[in-house]
Amino acid sequence: MKAPPILLAIDPGNNCGVAVFTMGVLAQCSLEHTPRSIVRADVVVAEVPQFAHSKRGDPQNIIKLAVTLGRYLALNAAKERELLVLPQQWKGNMGKQLTLECVRKVLTPAEAEVLGPNPIHDVSDAVGLGFWYLGRHNWR
After folding, report:
1. In 3-state terms, what secondary structure has residue 80?
2. Per residue in 93-127, pLDDT tens?
3. Structural domain boundaries enclosing 23
4. Helix (H) or strand (E) holding 86
5. What is this structure's pTM?
6. Crossing angle between the packed helical segments 96-106 and 121-134, to the nearest 10 degrees
7. What total number of domains does the chain contain?
8. Residue of 102, 109, 111, 94 lying closest to 137 (CA atoms)
9. For residue 87, what is the domain's CATH number?
10. pLDDT tens-digit profile of 76-86?
């Protein structure tokens, strides 16, 4: 697959992890505390919150995540394509630490500098989601 000129990957959380790829290369990533316009991307790929019946927790939290994701998507409409994926689709059952380890294995040295030494899991998930979309992953 040819990499889009600009790809925005979003991992929703209480704060959202976002990653911007330019021509398939990680250009920036951050943890966003308030929905805002990040970049006018050609493609936006985002993880859709999913309630796991087997886990304890408040289902209302999933609704909050979905609303937050909707706000990001409204502010960052894709020029060409928007793709919403479930966690199971792109990373299976990998936990946050294993996802980070897999992401680190495919980073170029320049991309490793962009990600930094101790990224918040929502940020490393956004980077991993972008790699998955681009076919630059070594998992699953």
Report:
1. coil
2. 888 899 999 999 999 999 999 999 999 999 999 99
3. 6-134
4. none
5. 0.91
6. 50
7. 1
8. 102
9. 3.30.420.10
10. 989 999 999 99
